[in-house]
Specification:
743 residues, alpha+beta, Aldehyde Oxidoreductase, domain 4, Aldehyde Oxidoreductase, domain 3, 7-stranded mixed sheet, 5-stranded mixed sheet, 27 strands, globular
Length: 743
């Protein structure tokens, strides 16, 4: 074994999947075909809320090529869900389910029947021939209305349609407001967001050589997909296998089931390969979105810029099922008070059931919504105090040892002051010995174009929160005779485009002490690996890195004792977290965080309402950049995706029906929309328990951007915008209401 440093860690090694993806050689789920395969199509609901009285498949079954039609009665355990099993696999009569209302559709994405045919066209035609008789039920689409007395009730388990309610009670609010010299209030609204990943939902399933139901699809946690499949089908764990090929992006949109269970059902019953591929329209219509959230906020500060009181109400639209709403809203609850140590806090956060499209995980996981309101309030406080917004932040941001809103200290390794300073300096702010001062921007020669600069900050948990069991398994195999010739890493963590697999291999090379070229990764297959947890919560580098280090240490010890091959398996468990106290919110919510701040320059066309993002300065403390180029890519990608959320992406839902399910009408940023400059400031203040000090970072750059853009728009026009996305019509309306741009 070489004792020389391998230099795998901290190097911009080319991604291991790069060549295959850019050449088109790497298969995505939709590229896969198996000889003799059948095709599957799904019949979704025609009603937003109704009881399914009967399903007539006679005409569809008579169609040439139709092999089988599955309905609710064919699912052995007709319920599923990532956090709680509260949704039928198929809605209809005859269900074998723990759910009391498995015959009720609660939104348009509920599935009623599955058609399997010889060709895709035959399956699609058969879907159209299925006749469904409904008994319509009253519906509710506004989460505020849904909580009121007399509103239609969507679940007997959740009175008042309140899926979850979190409270934070810290300090003495009466004393806090008495201290405040300045109080600002606001109401903030965020919209839906579509994940818009590269590969729509698709997959192929078959019976493998070990007689296992094998589902090949895209997801974020192979073992969790496996669990939901074997539960629904009433099988043993070792009877189900899940494999991910190239995933084609996820952003949280693949955490919940789409085609996995129904593919497995069909293959288990028919014993023939089955394929399904959704269109882009189906993908937008039938998978969950980012939560629309309303936040009512009241913040108070003293004349010298000390924030002394915050009161907020946070209301999120869950749709009719949990998905990850209880976790997302828990995070929004924590982020609604920002990155500031505040002595007196009162927050109520609700996840509310409606008949809209379900909502769930999306990059930032409640953090962007909370940060939008918190940073908006901070910027308004700065204006009210006639104080620079960076200066106000410097006087209030988390420090080492700061007490969170939930009454417990932040984990060690707090770098918020350094991150704010780095972003401010790079954005043009200066410190004169007495305080921070913003830069003055040169204005355009065109009077219709006004430039402004804005600033915002945020923090993001690393890993699962609020007591959810957190762990990660890895196995390291050392092969060779006198020296290590090959290192095989078994690590199931999903690479959803972020470059995780390259990072795993770099960390394995570093832990063992061999060149990167000697490492081989086995992953994305439940038959080859133990569970890693999800590719979510910015957790995989942190969690997998610690598991890989532990496995490598065990394998190296065996190598020294001349075991060949030397195999080490290790399960990493971080410090435990705790759930919110139901009355006070007191908890130890997370074991690690990452910290971010951004400066943004924009140009606002006051005639058309178009906002052009000119420059984004993004400072992120990543602890240790395992692969700096990939870190930079994550920063740039998050900024562009957050720009779409803040300015462009306006998913329109009317009484539960999405009206613009196309990328021609639901607009996401293209190369012509992105900022002329995104400058990544990569800071490395080690996390005390991160592998080589690394923190997760993929979500951090997303969080502050919308608030920073709104601050920049205010700097340019004098108008506060508290509802996103900032579409041109919305901007023009606000400008005209303030007498700006009137001809």
């Amino acid at each position: 074994m070489s004792t020389e440093k391998s230099f795998a860690l901290g190097q911009s090694i080319r991604r291991v999947d790069a060549v295959g993806k850019v050449t088109g050689e790497t298969p995505y789920p939709g590229d896969l075909n198996i000889e003799g395969q059948l095709w599957m199509k799904l019949r979704f609901s025609d009603r937003v809320h109704a009881r399914v009285l009967s399903i007539d498949t006679t005409a569809a079954e008579a169609l040439p090529g139709v092999v089988r039609i599955f309905t609710a009665k064919d699912v052995p355990h007709n319920e599923y869900g990532l956090v709680m099993k509260d949704q039928p696999v198929l809605c209809g009569p005859g269900s074998h389910s723990i759910l009391k209302d498995a015959d009720v559709v609660k939104c348009y994405m509920d599935c009623i029947a599955v058609v399997v045919a010889e060709t895709e066209a035959q399956a699609a035609e058969a879907v159209r021939l299925i006749q469904v008789v409904y008994e319509d039920l009253p519906a509710v689409f506004d989460p505020v209305m849904a909580m009121q007395e007399g509103a239609p009730q969507l679940s007997p388990e959740h009175p008042g349609n309140i899926l979850c309610h979190y409270r934070i009670r810290k300090g003495d609010m009466e004393a806090g407001w008495a201290q405040a010299d300045v109080i600002v209030e606001g109401e903030y609204h965020t919209g839906y967001q579509e994940h818009a990943y590269l590969q729509p939902e698709a997959g192929v399933a078959y019976i493998d050589e070990a007689d296992r139901v094998t589902v090949v699809t895209a997801g974020q946690w192979v073992h969790e997909d496996q669990e939901q499949i074997y539960h629904a089908l009433g099988l043993e764990p070792d009877q189900v296998r899940v494999i991910y090929p190239a995933i084609g992006g996820a952003f949280g949109g693949r955490e919940d089931m789409s085609v996995q269970i129904v593919l497995a059902l069909a293959v288990h019953e028919l014993r023939r390969p089955v394929k399904i591929q959704w269109s882009r329209e189906e993908s937008i219509l039938y998978h969950h979105k980012r939560h629309p959230v309303t936040i009512r906020a009241k913040w108070g500060a003293t004349r010298d810029g000390k924030i002394v009181a915050v009161e907020s109400t946070v209301i999120g639209d869950a749709g009719p099922y949990n998905y990850t709403t209880n976790k997302v809203m828990g995070n929004a609850n924590l982020c609604a008070t920002g990155v500031y140590e505040i002595p007196n806090i009162h927050v109520d956060t609700y996840g509310v059931l409606t008949n809209n499209i379900p909502t769930g995980a999306f990059r930032g996981f409640g953090g962007p919504q909370g940060a939008f309101a918190a940073e908006g309030q901070l910027n308004k406080l700065a204006q009210a105090l006639n104080m620079d917004p960076v200066e106000l932040r410097a006087r209030n941001v988390f420090q080492e040892g700061s007490i969170l809103s939930v009454g417990t200290p932040l984990p060690k390794g707090v770098s918020m002051p350094q991150v704010v300073e780095a972003a401010a300096r790079e954005s043009g702010w200066s410190y004169n010995g007495h305080g921070w001062q913003r830069p003055r921007l040169a204005q355009s020669q065109n009077a219709a174009l006004r430039r402004g600069i804005g600033f915002a900050a945020g923090f993001k948990n690393i890993g699962f929160s609020f007591g959810f069991p957190e762990q990660n398994w890895a196995t390291i195999e050392l092969h060779g005779t006198n020296e290590i010739e090959e290192v095989i890493v078994r690590q199931a963590g999903a690479d959803v485009g972020q470059g995780a697999h390259t990072a795993f291999m770099q960390m394995a090379a570093e832990a063992v002490g061999v060149p990167f070229s000697k490492v081989r990764l086995l992953t994305h297959d439940t038959a080859e690996t133990q569970t890693s947890g999800s590719a979510s919560a910015s957790r995989l580098t942190f969690m997998a890195g610690n598991a890989i280090r532990g496995a490598a240490a065990l394998a190296l010890e065996k190598w020294v004792h001349e075991e060949r091959p030397a195999i080490g398996t290790f399960q990493y468990r971080p410090p435990k977290t705790t759930p919110y106290d139901p009355l006070t919110g007191r908890s130890e919510p997370n074991f690690a965080y990452g910290y971010v701040a951004q400066g943004v320059e924009v140009e606002v066309d006051i005639e058309t309402g178009h906002i052009h993002v000119l420059k984004v300065i993004c400072a992120d403390d990543v602890g240790k950049a395992v692969n700096p180029q990939q870190v930079q890519g994550q920063i740039e990608g998050a900024v562009v995706q957050a720009q779409g959320y803040a300015i462009m992406e306006n998913l329109i839902s009317v009484e539960g029906k999405i009206k613009n399910p196309y990328l021609s009408t639901y607009l996401i940023p293209t190369v012509l929309d992105i900022p002329a400059e995104v400058k990544s400031i990569i800071l490395e203040y080690p996390d005390p328990i991160g592998p080589w000090g690394a923190r997760g970072m993929a979500e951090m750059p997303y969080l502050p951007l919308a608030a920073a853009i709104c601050a920049a728009v205010h700097d340019a026009t004098g108008v506060w915008m508290d509802t996103i996305p900032l579409t041109p019509d919305r901007v023009v309306t606000a400008l005209r209401a303030n007498g700006i741009g009137v001809l």
